[in-house]
């Protein structure tokens, strides 16, 4: 089974574009949608996206050569080797196409958003629902205005549910994403310090995220973090279930036990009783992904055993608390992204381990005028955490270092303005048997540090 029928003629109609090519091919159905010509395959639609460094229009004929049956373009392709639909904006057309194609499916769709833990929660929800349904989930974290419609256009006839991650950085973006996704269930993980340069403060973050509810049906469900003060008091206008550690939550975790670097166990308490689960992930904070997964699973008719097995099948996505035993150290590769909430959770988890514990932390970006203070606050938290060594790298990371020093706590601590300076002394800083956390915002490229750590022996 493949895509629901989507002809080239329909693509032109839905996008408001002009079909240019052999009229005989108008009735041909596409087999998929790609934006990278290297991923093109027989019968697919190639979307020519104009980026800062690469213009997809230059690769249209390569896509045709790889089997594409049609292109979506915002400029005339004079030497096109196949038919194409000419539109004013390929990005706008892609979103219109994603919205239309989503409307062809009458299946439960879960939208996942929040300031922290979106991808982890998305993976756990999908793992649980997969025990009962054939589930489409967002690949990796393709959660923006290009990734979301591409995810929706990946729906196939056989899919019985979808879990779509929705990420934003400014006002209006979530409204546009929700218009495409039309989620039946919305999971909101937390409201935290992120994208403050655009959103201003935590109330601005909440306003921007809550745009998701504008395109939900009256019988929809909001699943929100009840430990988050803003979300606990927020009225989404539809049924709301809360999760967290507090006693007032509809789904709460008790008896949380980190089991080294490999697992965490807990009991999930809800109106249905108490369910013991084990999550193959590092850190007590991982229960905050398991709780909404259980809540959504229960809402969609899954039993205890399905939820338990689903959580056991969870696997972390690259760069998110991945545990690597290098033979010399235990590397906690959590370098994909960072904000104050996730940094704090990772440091606290590191502190639960045995032996010498080292945190290599970098800049947290897009924190606006509060950036320096939030980095300092993280340094204060590190000082109280009980870990053994702090290594800071980056311009803003200097304030993490200063925050620690200001507490007067005696701890081995270093600051390096650039990664290259850190690389030069890394072999002398890190000792055999250490547990080393690596975490920073994605733009810091701390995966380079993770790779250097893997080379130590």
UniProtKB/TrEMBL annotation:
Tell me which positions the record assigns to the signal sequence: none
* Mur ligase C-terminal domain: residues covered: 319-441
Q: Where is the Mur ligase central domain?
A: 112-296
- Catalysed reaction per UniProt? D-alanyl-D-alanine + UDP-N-acetyl-alpha-D-muramoyl-L-alanyl-gamma-D-glutamyl-meso-2,6-diaminopimelate + ATP = UDP-N-acetyl-alpha-D-muramoyl-L-alanyl-gamma-D-glutamyl-meso-2,6-diaminopimeloyl-D-alanyl-D-alanine + ADP + phosphate + H(+)
Residues at which ATP binds: 114-120
Q: Which GO terms describe its biological process?
A: cell division; cell wall organization; peptidoglycan biosynthetic process; regulation of cell shape
Q: Which GO terms describe its molecular function?
A: ATP binding; UDP-N-acetylmuramoyl-tripeptide-D-alanyl-D-alanine ligase activity; UDP-N-acetylmuramoylalanyl-D-glutamyl-2,6-diaminopimelate-D-alanyl-D-alanine ligase activity
The EC number(s) attached to this protein equal: 6.3.2.10
On the tree of life, the source organism's domain of life is Bacteria
GO cellular-component term (any):
cytoplasm
Going by the UniProt record, its keywords in alphabetical order are: ATP-binding, Cell cycle, Cell division, Cell shape, Cell wall biogenesis/degradation, Cytoplasm, Ligase, Nucleotide-binding, Peptidoglycan synthesis
Query: What does the record give as its pathway?
Result: Cell wall biogenesis; peptidoglycan biosynthesis
Q: Where in the cell is it found?
A: Cytoplasm
HAMAP family in the cross-refs: MurF (MF_02019)
Q: Which family does it belong to?
A: Belongs to the MurCDEF family. MurF subfamily.
This chain's function reads:
Involved in cell wall formation. Catalyzes the final step in the synthesis of UDP-N-acetylmuramoyl-pentapeptide, the precursor of murein.
What protein name applies here?
Answer: UDP-N-acetylmuramoyl-tripeptide--D-alanyl-D-alanine ligase
Q: Which species does the entry assign this protein to?
A: Sporobacter termitidis DSM 10068
* Encoding gene per record: murF
């Amino acid at each position: 089974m493949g895509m629901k029928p989507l002809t080239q003629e329909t693509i032109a109609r839905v996008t408001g574009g002009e079909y240019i090519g052999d009229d005989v091919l108008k009735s041909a159905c596409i087999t998929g949608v790609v934006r990278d010509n290297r991923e093109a395959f027989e019968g697919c639609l190639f979307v020519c996206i104009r980026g800062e460094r690469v213009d997809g229009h230059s690769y249209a004929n390569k896509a045709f050569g790889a089997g594409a049956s049609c292109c979506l373009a915002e400029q005339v392709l004079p030497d096109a080797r196949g038919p194409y639909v000419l539109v004013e904006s390929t990005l706008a057309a892609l979103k219109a196409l994603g919205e239309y194609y989503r409307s062809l499916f009458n299946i439960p769709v879960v939208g996942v958003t929040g300031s922290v833990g979106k991808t982890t929660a998305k993976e756990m929800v999908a793992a649980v629902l997969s025990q009962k349904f054939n589930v489409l989930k967002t690949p990796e974290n393709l959660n923006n205005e290009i990734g979301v419609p591409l995810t929706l256009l990946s729906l196939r006839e056989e899919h019985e549910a979808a879990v779509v991650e929705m990420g934003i950085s400014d006002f209006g973006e979530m409204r546009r994403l929700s218009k495409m996704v039309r989620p039946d269930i919305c999971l909101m993980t937390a409201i935290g310090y992120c994208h403050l340069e655009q959103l201003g403060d935590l109330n601005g973050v909440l306003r921007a995220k809550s745009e998701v509810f504008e395109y939900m049906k009256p019988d929809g469900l909001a699943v929100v973090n009840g430990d988050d003060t803003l979300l606990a008091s927020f009225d989404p206008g539809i049924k709301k279930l809360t999760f967290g550690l507090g006693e007032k939550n509809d789904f709460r975790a008790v008896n949380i036990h980190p089991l080294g670097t490999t697992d965490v166990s807990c009991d999930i308490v809800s109106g249905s009783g108490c369910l013991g689960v084990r999550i193959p992930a590092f850190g007590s904070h991982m229960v905050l992904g398991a709780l909404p997964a259980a809540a959504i699973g229960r809402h969609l008719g899954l039993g205890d055993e399905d939820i338990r097995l689903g959580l056991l099948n969870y696997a972390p996505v690259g760069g998110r608390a991945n545990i690597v035993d290098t033979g010399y150290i235990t590397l906690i590769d959590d370098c994909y992204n960072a904000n104050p909430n996730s940094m704090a959770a990772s440091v606290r988890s590191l502190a639960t381990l045995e032996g010498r514990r080292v945190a290599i932390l970098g800049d947290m970006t897009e924190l606006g005028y509060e950036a320096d203070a939030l980095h300092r606050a993280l340094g204060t938290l590190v000082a109280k955490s009980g870990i053994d060594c702090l290594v800071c790298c980056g311009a803003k990371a200097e304030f993490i270092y200063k925050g620690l020093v200001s507490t007067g706590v005696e701890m081995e601590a270093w600051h390096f303005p650039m990664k290259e300076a850190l690389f030069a002394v890394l072999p002398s800083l890190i000792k055999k048997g250490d547990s080393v956390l690596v975490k920073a915002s994605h733009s810091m490229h701390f995966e380079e540090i993770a790779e250097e750590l893997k080379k130590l022996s």
